[in-house]
Design a protein that fits this description.
CATH architecture: 7 Propeller
Distance between the termini: 36 Å
């Protein structure tokens, strides 16, 4: 079972108590509705003395509508049966081809397969055997992969650096192990660095390093243990508590150079993401009344409620149109605690792929697996090609890998 899923099961009462105490510590009162926090000493580390105040509850944002009448039916096609643990898209120059690079879940072997080419045969990139891969991250534009798996109850993380195609000299796959017990890990937008969390006696410590783990240095500490991280833009890391319906959560922005941590939001069932330029935040709150997803302009604080409610963790930003957000979310009704059960693998629903364009707020349905080709799917992970012509996704259950042709 995915190590991140295991820790979700431990959230429960302990997380509720920990978060309540932490929120009181940081904000001096509980909050039940989404609020923006203002840090008057933004250059200070979270462990330093700082003054934090909570602004009044935000005004109810306006709602955009999904334009279903102009939805374009895209062709969806299967790339490989699986089981696939994760995939990315690499564009080769000699010859000019677009390939899906994927990791087999059962043995960790890595393959390239030319996309949209009849009769294409997978090409082995790495035969290093690592059984039971449950997570894959890609670095250095797909020329390196970071794999995570469970060894007993210990999460292990291994770096694979792949040979450069058509190089004058060939080299073997580079294999390096990162520290054991990494709680969460994220790759920088350039793919040249990583940030990872290790547990401490009071919470977690955040470290930055090269993708192979060299040059590691401590960047920040947080007095919370159930934390997830992303690295959406060059200068900003996001850290936020694991979502749990109706349980108060906190999100921080962390300067990737200084480690200064600034509280951003606190709300029930909070998850958050940001655009590559950090111009926009997308966050979801969830209570017994159901989830609600918002888009916020970071410069002005202006907010818009999305007419569909994707969880930011199930979205990716465009690689060409960097103000376009692609999300997987069910069209059908799901209960308020659906995301909790989705994390544990005990609930599934047929997903539709949406696009949300900033700043005009135009929403559209781009494809529905099973209707635009392929089969009905609960989507586990997604990837975009560098030219944004293809979107890849891994289907939950059989872990097959699928492609979508984008406009």
């Amino acid at each position: 079972m995915n190590s991140r899923l295991i820790t979700y099961l431990l959230v429960g009462t302990g997380l509720t108590i920990a978060l309540t105490v932490s929120i009181w510590f940081f904000f001096f009162r509980p909050a039940a509705t989404p609020s923006e926090t203002t840090n008057t000493t933004s250059t200070s580390n979270i462990n330093s003395t700082q003054s934090v105040s909570v602004s009044p509850t935000v005004q109810e944002p306006e709602t955009n509508t999904v334009n279903t009448t102009t939805a374009v039916q895209q062709k969806i096609f299967e790339i490989v049966d699986g089981p696939v643990a994760g995939a990315t898209v690499v564009q080769m120059r000699q010859p000019t081809t677009t390939v899906a690079r994927y990791v087999q879940q059962n043995n960790g072997h890595v393959f390239d397969l030319v996309i949209d080419s009849s009769g294409a045969v997978p090409k082995a990139i790495s035969n290093t055997t690592i059984p039971g891969i449950n997570r894959v991250l890609w670095a250095k534009q797909g020329s390196a992969a970071i794999l995570q798996y469970l060894d007993g109850n210990v999460t292990k993380t291994v770096y694979l650096g792949f040979p450069i195609p058509n190089a004058s000299t060939t080299r073997p796959v580079e294999v390096k192990f990162l520290p054991e017990g990494i709680r969460d890990i994220a790759v920088s937008p350039s793919g040249a660095n990583i940030v990872y969390l290790l547990r401490s006696s009071t919470g977690v410590r955040g470290y930055t390093a090269a993708p192979d783990g060299t040059g590691s240095k401590e960047l920040f500490t947080l007095p919370l243990s159930e934390i997830l991280i992303t690295w959406p833009s060059a200068n900003t890391i996001l850290a936020y508590t694991k979502s749990n319906v109706s349980v108060a959560g906190i999100a921080f922005s962390i300067n990737s150079s200084s480690g200064a941590a600034v509280p951003l939001l606190h709300a029930a069932g909070l998850t958050v993401g940001a655009s590559p330029s950090y111009a926009y935040l997308v966050y979801q709150t969830s209570s017994t009344g159901g989830p609600a997803t918002y888009a916020r302009t970071t410069a002005t604080g202006q907010q818009t409620r999305l007419s569909f409610n994707p969880a930011p963790e199930r979205c990716i930003w465009g690689s060409v149109a960097t103000t376009t957000l692609y999300c997987a979310a069910p069209l059908e009704y799901t209960p308020a605690n659906y995301l909790d059960f989705f994390h544990t693998g005990s609930a599934t629903a047929a997903d539709t792929l949406f696009a949300f364009a900033f700043p005009n707020g135009q929403s559209s349905i781009i494809a529905t697996p099973g209707e635009a080709g392929g089969v009905s799917s609960t989507i586990d992970s997604m990837a975009l090609s560098p030219d944004e012509k293809y979107l890849l996704f891994v289907r939950r259950g059989d872990h097959s890998l699928w492609g979508v042709r984008l406009p």
